[in-house]
Amino acid sequence: MQFDAEVSGHKVVMDATPEVGGNDIGARPKQLMMAALAGCTGMDVISMLKKMRVKVDEFDIDIEADMTEEHPKHYYKVHIIYKFKGQDLDEAKLKKAVDLSQDRYCGVSFTYRQTMDLTYEIVIL
Amino acid sequence: MQFDAEVSGHKVVMDATPEVGGNDIGARPKQLMMAALAGCTGMDVISMLKKMRVKVDEFDIDIEADMTEEHPKHYYKVHIIYKFKGQDLDEAKLKKAVDLSQDRYCGVSFTYRQTMDLTYEIVIL
After folding, report:
1. Per-residue pLDDT averaged across B44-69, rounded?
2. Which residue of A21, A74, A105 is in closest CB contact with B72?
3. Which residues of B fall within a CB distance of 8 Å from A34?
4. Using CB atoms within 10 A of its CB, is residue B15 exposed (0-12), middle (13-18) or buried (19+)?
5. Across all residues in chain A, what is the average pLDDT?
6. Measured between alpha carbons, how far is A95 from A120 in angstroms, rounded to an integer?
7. Which terminus of chain B has fewer Cβ atoms in its 10 Å neighbourhood, N or C?
8. Which chain A positions have a beta carbon within 8 Å of B21's beta carbon?
């Protein structure tokens, strides 16, 4: 069940769990969809914050996703948690960057929103 | 622009191109969506072929995808090429496995089909 993908010249290994015949050598393909989402919106946000001269010390994104029980099993509900850490962070600017990514720039969010209930929140640590 | 994703306990590195401020250390997030697609349908197909007792020597999946020019930049057209290599491969069985993945099992295909013109073909080498 192991598949090695070549993505932008980089190797990405995927594999299934032992329960379905895999060896857990790599990521589950569907969960990789969520990595794509985090990376897409994360790059948007951090580049907009750079333009706004907002300095962030740490930036993490958690994604909570619910999958249907029936085939074709697919995510139908996704919640993105943007977690920022830094000195005197301007919450309005963080919100602006995140909103812009979600409303205008992130093509992965745009795609997923057509079939998923996609919500998000900002947490300042 | 580098983001390290933890996906099913495995690290997946994403990064942007130098043109947009990245260092090309890892995969582009949107292209990762296509790896997820290949992995999802690939695992379906290979496990169905195993049940059908079809022995495949090599199995590759190529994906050709077109992205919009306008924001939010997203894939709108995707063509999957399933490439099989093996002795006396039964084309009808290969087609059955691929069709079942596309029509019933692959949740990534299901999701993408809502916003993308998704087509596929089978090539026996």
Report:
1. 97
2. A105
3. 7
4. buried
5. 97
6. 11
7. C
8. 47, 50
ipTM above 0.85, yes or no: yes
Q: What is the pLDDT of residue B120?
A: 98
**CA distances (Å), A24 to each of A61, A66, B58, in order?**
23, 21, 21
| Confidence tier at A6 by pLDDT (50, 70, 90) | very high
Q: How far apart are the CA of A88 and the nearest CA of chain B, in angstroms?
A: 22
Cross-chain residue pair A110–B74, CB shorter than 8 Å: yes
Beta strands in A8-124 (DSSP E): 10-14, 58-67, 75-85, 117-124
Do A7 and B47 lie within an 8 Å CB cutoff? no
Q: Half-sphere exposure (CA, 13 Å, Cβ side) for B2?
A: 8
- The confidence score (pLDDT) of residue A109 equals 98
Q: What is the pLDDT of residue B9?
A: 95
Q: Which residues in chain B have their CB less than 8 angstroms from residue A74's CB? A: 107-108, 110-111
